[in-house]
Structure formats: C-alpha cells, structure tokens
Design a protein that fits this description.
118 residues, alpha+beta, Fructose-1,6-Bisphosphatase, Chain A, domain 1, 5-stranded mixed β-sheet, two-stranded antiparallel sheet, 32% strand
Amino acid sequence: MNLKKEFDIALKAVLGAGRILERGFQSPKDYHLKGAIDLVTEWDLKSQEWITSRLSARYPDHDFLVEEGGLARRSSPFCWILDPLDGTTNFVHGFPVYCVSLALLKEKEILLGIVHNP
C-alpha cells in the first residue's frame, strides 16, 4: 500500500494546525479542566477542527479517535488518531514544548504517524 497521498494530506493538515497553535501560543489563553489535572483550551479545539475537517473531506468513511471528543465510528478499517495539542499544560503556561500528534491505523496496524512541534 502506497501511503504517499495519505501522508501528504495528513502533513498539510498537521502543519496548518501548527500555524493555528503558533498564533494561540502568542495569545492570552483561557482554559478549563476536563479532568482532575487535564486542561483544554480553545486552541485544542481549533487545531482538532482544522485537522478533522480536512481529513473528513478527503476520507469521509474513515473513523476518528480524537482526544477532545472520543471516537467517531463509521465502520471503516481505517482510523485517524489525533491529539490536536499534546502538551496543553506547557502551552497554557508559555513553555514552548507542545506538539500535534496524528496517526493512521488500518485495523490494528499503524500505517503512518506525524508529530509536529510548531
């Protein structure tokens, strides 16, 4: 299976989300707790929406497992796994160590992965 097309599409989506996060990093940040210690910001959600909307447009039958929302199941053997802002606590506190993490699985096999630190 040649994954060049999938990789190129995923990379463009991740790089676009990285640009969104770079803008957010320079801005004041509001956040809320989603658990005892886990934070969520509007930037997590913006990054997630950017990526999932682009991938869904190209792969409408693929499943998505996203940190800020769970699993969107479409009964596909393919599943995109996304952490739209890995390192939210660092991001909120102005520490520039955070990333976007995305992987594509087919059944239980990882086909590709991208980690981008904007």
